[in-house]
Each structure stands twice: as C-alpha cells, then as structure tokens.
Amino acid sequence: MERLVVEKEIAKALKKNKKGSILFVDDFLGYGNPESIKKALLRLKQKGLLVRLAHGIYLFPKIDKELGLLFPSTEDIAKAIARRDRARIVPTGVHALNKLGLSSQVPMKVVYLTDAAARSVKVGKRTISFKKASPKNLLAQGEISSLVIQALKTIGQKKLDNDTLKRIHLILENEKEENIVDDAKLAPAWIKKILTQSIK
Question: Cα–Cα distance between 102 and 27 in angstroms, integer?
C-alpha cells in the first residue's frame, strides 16, 4: 500500500514539472525513502510517464507531433547533474571546440572539469565524464573566454595555426572585455597573450 501511495504522489508531483525536465531520485526525497522512490520511478517509467536516461536520471518526456520524443542534449544533462550536485562545470576538449564552432566533430564522450566528485555517466551511446579540477580552472567568468581557454589547451600552442587564431579573435569579440581581462589572469602565459591581444 505504501509503495502505491509513493508512486501516486510522485505522479502527481510530475505534473508540476515542465515537459522535457530532467529529474533525479533526489528531487522526490520528500515522498519516501530513496529505495521506495527508485522503485516508484521505475514503475512510472514502465507506464510511460518517464523515460530513463541513465542510472537515477529520468526525463519527463516531451513529444513533438513530427519528431516524436525529444531527448535533451548532452549539455542539458550535464548542466542538470551540476545543478543537482551544486557543482561548477566547464566544457573541455572537442566539446569546447564544437561549442565555439571551431570543430564540426560531435564527440560521443564529452568531458567537463568540475569541483564535484569525478564520475562518468552513460546516456545511450554517449558518455558524460566529470573530471575533478583545481578551483583555478573553474574560476573563469565569461562563458566564451572560458571555452576559448579550454579550446586552446586542446589544440596546443604548437598546433595553433593563423586561421584558427583569427577565428578565435573574432569569437572573443562577443565576450565582455572585463571577462577577458579577468579570465586571462587564470590562463597559461601563451593563452593569456592571445586573450589580451583580442582586446587591443
């Protein structure tokens, strides 16, 4: 009887969420103990009210008439995990290059620096990895300048060509000057030089 009450209460609570919301076991802790919540969420998944994205991560599905079930992006899932863990995250590697338009490659494994615990989450064929980093690597204020720092680290000083450098300077025109100035202080010397040159 108790498990049915938990399931019913969670089903009722779901309706208060926006379609397409990413949800966790932690979001329903007020309705019972963690084990009974996990079981209730699995039953709601079996009934089609939820879609299981990964272990302990669910989607309150949004259905498009033409496209069908709309899945969240890898980034949406990573941001939802960061919100739950009250953690900061910074995209790195090919993912940072892709976000800036410097690479058309869409990585199946995306890596974020974080101040929370290191972990990997498998979502279908995609993997989201959170890599524990020192606070300095997470202090950048500007979204664009932060991505540029990570993109340049991925490219490497010796492999950076003039064409990519010009594109980076153009991209940085969309960042606030004060963010570039502050974030340059956190970057390695060669990247700091590129950032400061962009505001001259």
Answer: 37
Predicted confidence (pLDDT) per residue in 65-81, tens digit: 899 999 999 999 999 99
Classify residue 71 by its DSSP letter.
P
Q: What is the full DSSP assignment across 132-195?
A: E--GGGG----HHHHHHHHHHHHH-GGG--HHHHHHHHHHHTTS-HHHHHHHHTTS-HHHHHHH
Percent of the chain with pLDDT over 70: 98
Torsion angle (degrees, nearest 10) of CA 112, 132, 134, 110: -10
pLDDT at 38: 93
pLDDT digits (tens, 9 = 90+) for 111-126: 999 999 999 999 988 9
Which of the 8 DSSP states describes residue 58? E
* DSSP conformation class of 118: -
Nearest to 187 by CA among 133, 146, 144: 146
| Fold exhibited by the domain 2-64 | Arc Repressor Mutant, subunit A (1.10.10)
**Cβ atoms 41, 77 nearer than 8 A:** no
Q: Please state the domain extents for the chain.
A: 2-64, 74-137, 141-197
- Calculate the alpha carbon distances from 130 to 25, 115, 190, 196 in Å: 20, 9, 26, 29
Residue 79, CA atoms < 13 Å, CB-side half-sphere:
6
